[in-house]
Amino acid sequence: MRALTLSVALLAALTTSLAQSDDTKETVESASSSSSSDDESKEAWMRAPAGTVAVRSGEDALLTCVVLGARGKPVLWRRARDSSLLTAGGVRVTRDERVKVLHDDADEPLQGPGIRKGGDVWALVIKSVKSSDAGLYTCELNTEPPVRSFHRLTVISRGLTPPEAQNATDSYSANNPTLSTLALSHNYTDCCISANVSRGCLGFCSIQTILEGTGQDPETCQPDFPAIVKCMADGRNHVPCCVQEHVPDICQDVCRGEFTPVTDNIKTHYSCAAYMEKTLACIVEGIELLPSPPEDVEVEPLSEKQLNITWSPPLENTETVTEYIVNVTTLRSFDAHLIDPSESSMRNTSMKMSQPMTYKVPANKTFLVLNDLLPFTMYEISVTSYNIHGSSLPSYSIRSLTLTPGKMKTTAVASAPKLPDVRSCCLSAGINHYGCVDKLCDPTKTFEIGVTDLMICAPWAGVTFGCLANGMDHTPCCRARGLPEACLPLCSGNITNLDFNHFKCLRFMTGYTNCLLQGYGVLPGPPTRLHLTNIDTDFAVVHWAPPNALADTVQFYNLHYKALQLEEDYKTVERVQSPFILEDLESNTDYEIFVEAVNEHGLGEASPRLIFRTQSLALEDEEEVSNAYNVTACCEKVQVATVCMPLCSYDAKMSDLRTLAPLCAQEFHKLLRCGAGGRNHEACCARRGVPASCRGVCAGAPRGSVNSCVSYVGNIVQCFEEGTGILPGPPRELHAVVNHDKLFLDWAAPQDGANATSYVVHWQKVDNNSQPYYYNTLQLDNKMNVTQTMARLEGLDVNSTYHVFVVAANDFGTSLPSSMLLLNITEDTENKEVSGIPSPPHSLSVASHSATWLALSWQPPQFSQPDEKITYTLFFKSPTQLGTGNVTKITTTVPGHTLEKLSPNTQYVVWVTAHAVAGDSLPSETLLAWTDPAYPAFVEPPTINPVNLVVEGSSMTILCIAMGTPTPTISLYISGRLVRQEVTRHMVTVIHNVTRDMSQVSCYADNGYGTPMQASRRINISHVPTIQASGITMAAAGDSVILECRVEALPKPTVAFWRDPSGRTPVIDGPNYSIQLLSDPEESTKYTMRLIIKKITETDEGDYFCHAENAFGKTLRPVSVRLRTAPHHNVTECCTQMNVSSTCIDACSFHLDMDNIMDRPECMDDFEKLMKCAADGSDHRGCCASWGVPRNCLELCRGGPVSRTCALQHARRALACFRDAGAKLPGPPRNLKAHVAPTPHAVLLSWDAPLKNPQTVYLYRVFWRAYGAKVPEKLDTSETSVVLTGLQDDVRYECVVKAANDVGTSSLSQSIMFTTAGQETGAAAAPVGGSSTASAVGGAVACILVAAILLSAGLYYRHRKNLRLKAQGGVAFENPSYLREPNPDTVVNGTVPNGNTANGGNGVANSISNSTAWRQETLQNPSTAIPTAREVDPTLYEELKLGQDGAGFKRLK
């Protein structure tokens, strides 16, 4: 059966036919204490209702109860499922107002059998019935015992029609039985449950439930469908009805109650959906009319020639049975004298599988004695019930053996010896507890003893078990049966008391009881002479003789067997007699068997175990029919691709077909030819429901596409497998000899399947108006049947052409032609021999086309050997090319080819021929085909889904559509990268895990004609906001603090600052807070969110959270502000030393009060002093540069002088940097001094560590130059002293030092003047410029030197290893930007010419750079601090480096 899933829809269509169904009679329970011959009986009784009441939902239902002899007693109506009382007499008891009773107390008689007056009728009315009202109702007369009748109500959905012959009331007709709705209410749930159908699939076990919807997934219930369908058929034979309704035989399994599960085998994938409605209609009709199978069929051998068959009548439609048919099949007859177990039935068989015999038995008999049977022969018997409408399915089959010659069945069984009177023994011993006497003093009930019984009867344990032992010691038997040592005293009867240790003996009470009975001598002994004969692959015949002891008391035997390899428990076959056929065995397997005799007391001892091995199937597998058709060999011969060989089998897998179909499309014609095997299977396919459009596949030569025939692949393959076994193969080597008007034909018989009984010769005259042969038929105008492999045709028309072919035939059908003859009959033809050739390829057509190519396909020759290798030659040319030399030939092995590199808009002539060993075919039909005109490629802008809503991390689908002929090559580019390229007109690409840089999508098309075209589209990639936070900001109380987070999001986010991560405490714009969201002018997706705390207090200290959210998500990042616990220096003290005016001194606290300065213009004169104090000797330029302070204002960030504009715009940022890192940066070195060095041309410099953060300093940088020179020299050291070498004795030098740690650098120390004789006391540094001329010259020189720096930078880095001279304890730094450090601490007046230094001779190398002038680090005399010069602007390279993170001097790289 295919697709039971369609049953709901199909069964709905059957309800019209259900309307004609008969009702089922309900059983009536009645009680009567006496009979009476008088019509006026005193006993009350009820008329039985004729059937079920069927009412559509929403209508009123009327259930009629006829009560005779009520004599005033009340009549009750109940609902059977919950026994709820609905009415009592004429009163409604239930709360349901839809229920009422119709009753008339009038005494007038009413029409109807047995209804004497109106008062006898009690009708239950239920208005507007619902589906929940369906079920059984009870009409009950309140007597003792009560008298009842049962009434079934069926509620049909509104879409269904109730039975036409059924009114909404019960009818009572004595002679005319009414129709019922049994078909509609066919409920086989009990059958399904007994067949272990899954609970979730029980919805398919009722027709009504299927109609109303099961709510179950049919796919999950596939494994249960065989049991469900068997229960649905209910043992009735619906096949005749299905045949009458033209249901194909392959789809008749459901009509027999069978279901073919859909497996991976291709033969199970056949289509029966078109016949499902007819099939179910037959089942519904058969349930109503047909009898069920006979019950309890038993077969008993009586003698060597007699079998006694008995059965019980069927359960359904018993009264309609007209006869029984007993089917008897002789399976195998054995040699009656074989007793050697080693003998095999395979070598001693006189008869196998004869035709079945049938015996008719009248309906009033349920037994049959078969006579004149063969001795010691296996028979299979089944019984079928018949009535006038049809039959049941056969009962279950029983196999039985007739007895061996001379043996007769024992008819009388003697009584077994009586058991000892253990009960009297217990009572005489004083046991007065009834339960103990009943269980512990009855040897037949000892296996029922439980723990409670042992506990209660423990005081009498010695008496009870002593009486059971009956004075005998049963210990040896108990020990042999495996009872533990603790339980053996029970067997001997010598036990004084019971304790918990004896509870484990309860598991062995069955063995204990058997030992007692065996000791009493009432059980039969073990069967004797156990042996086997006729051991086969799946069965064996078991023989045994009766036991030596009490053989006449044996009622039957139990046979136990098990397979030794599986280590399984014994399987038991009960109630058998010798000989017995042990069936369903596995081949080549060892089995162990034994037999036990049974009498009225129980099981006797077991016979000895017997081990045997079944025969192997290998012997049978070797017996292959030599002329059987081998489909695999055919595929190998025609060279089917190796990857496609799994499909070359009648047991191919459907999964392989789905997987290999794309790869093996060109091989299908070979697979079909080999599958058909040269046989004509069209008759089988028609019988099995294959539509006419697909029957060409059944002949191995499809007439078109086979895609529409895939659903019938199982039907077709089954016909292939069946037909290759019974149909004749094709004739071979067809030859003809033409002699004037006569034709002599000769051919070879089929090689495989030599079952051809005749041959049919077909011939037809071909003229100019007819085709050489017909593709859609295997019939020609003339045919002749012959039995030999030759034929003679005479009287042919001279000067004519004839088409001839030959097919083989037998009773089952015909083969296909293997070749054809096309003959010219002329007068002068004499003994001309012509060989058969394949028919020409046909159905040549253009599958697809373009401007430069044509895809052609054709069908293989219909006439050819199935295992014949066929190749094709394709011919084509343009009509404009004259001459045969312009014809192009292409050879191929598949029925299709693509002609490429053709000219656009050109006509071509095409034909094809086939080649085989027998010869070349005639040409196929000629095809005229045009290529398309050429058009340049045109591409549309890419279509992107989702439209305007591409989310980062998700997927987007890009569609590129291009026009043009030939088909263009489409290339997809995303942000300039090639993603995919394909020759097509529509290219769909799915991009997963989209990133935000995929903003540009382009489709590019080119077909080689015209100019390639590109179309692009820019998209916005929406994404969840991402946040970069500024981290921790240090501040002092009262400072203005700026907290910033950089946000990237699309679409634009909404932002907020929170004080806690849950967002319950937002920061609100107010007097002390300001929140800003600034857009990046260059990138529209980037923003800066800023929180300005105008005056920070302790309550403002802590964590803040930057929150950004848009439609695609939200992000949270922390940013913190911390108050310094102690200031790093006292700004007030510094302000006092710098002589800040008294009016502004209050702006100096531990940190500068910027608002106090800005509010008083008079303080601007002291601004540089205030900033110098706030800088605290540290260099904060790196911090300021990272926050956007311009290059010309960076001097402000180490306390140097700047313009008023810089002061007003960037003072707050500078102060923020002072507060953030001021406590971590080092102060300037102190007490710089020069000393006489121990070597000539050198000087020793020393200094003290800075007061601020001296422990963090890891490096000092020393600057020196000849007084007035522009180019300073430098070296780095980690010590607080250094020796400068290479100095000139008569030159004055000036020098400064600065400190560095991991955070940054200090400002310059105070400068000193020195010579090689030591430090000059009170010497002042020379001024940088003393006149305007000098200034102008200096400016010009500065410009030149700046250019020199840029040009020499490359050479400097390339040769820095050669220039590096290390001083003692020094570290070399080469980056020239270290020279660009303005010094607000020291200012000098005047200028001094550049001095030169040379490498000294102390063996210690100093790091010296002569690359640029010392403009940035001016020196001053502490006594004359007058600023005369400014820092020049840093280069762009230096400015970018100022913003980089780093430690020490690297902060200024």
Task: Give an account of the 3D structure.
- The structure is a single chain.
- The longest helix is centred in the C-terminal third of the chain and has 27 residues, at 1332-1358.
- A hairpin with a 7-residue loop joins strand 22 and strand 23 (571-576).
- The model is unreliable at 1-42, 110-117, 159-183, 336-353, 620-627, 772-776 and 1323-1453 (pLDDT under 50).
- Strands 2-10-9-4-5-6 form a six-stranded mixed beta sheet, with no helix packed on it.
- The radius of gyration is 57 Å and the shape is extended.
- Helix 22 crosses helix 24 (1167-1175).
- 16% of the residues lie in helices and 29% in strands.
- With 1453 residues, the chain is an alpha+beta fold.
List the helices and strands and how they pair.
Elements lengths: L6 H6 L2 H4 L26 E2 L6 E4 L4 E8 L6 E5 L4 E5 L2 E2 L6 E5 L17 E6 L8 E7 L5 E10 L32 H6 L12 H6 L12 H9 L5 H6 L31 H14 L5 E7 L5 E6 L10 E11 L17 E2 L4 E6 L4 E4 L6 E11 L2 E2 L6 E4 L20 H7 L5 H7 L10 H6 L4 H9 L5 H6 L7 H5 L16 H12 L7 E6 L6 E6 L10 E8 L7 E6 L3 E3 L7 E10 L2 E5 L3 E4 L4 H5 L8 H7 L16 H7 L7 H9 L5 H6 L7 H4 L14 H14 L5 E8 L2 E7 L9 E9 L15 E5 L3 E4 L6 E11 L2 E2 L6 E5 L6 E4 L6 E8 L4 E6 L11 E7 L10 E5 L3 E4 L7 E10 L2 E2 L6 E4 L4 E5 L3 E3 L4 E2 L4 E10 L3 E6 L2 E7 L2 E6 L8 E7 L6 E6 L2 E9 L2 E4 L5 E10 L3 E5 L14 E7 L6 E8 ...
Parallel strand pairs: 2-10, 47-54, 55-61
Antiparallel strand pairs: 1-3, 3-8, 4-5, 4-9, 5-6, 7-8, 9-10, 11-12, 12-16, 13-14, 13-15, 13-17, 17-18, 17-19, 20-21, 21-24, 22-23, 22-25, 25-26, 25-27, 28-29, 28-36, 29-32, 30-31, 30-33, 33-34, 33-35, 37-38, 38-41, 39-40, 39-42, 42-43, 42-44, 45-48, 46-48, 48-51, 49-50, 49-52, 52-53, 54-56, ...
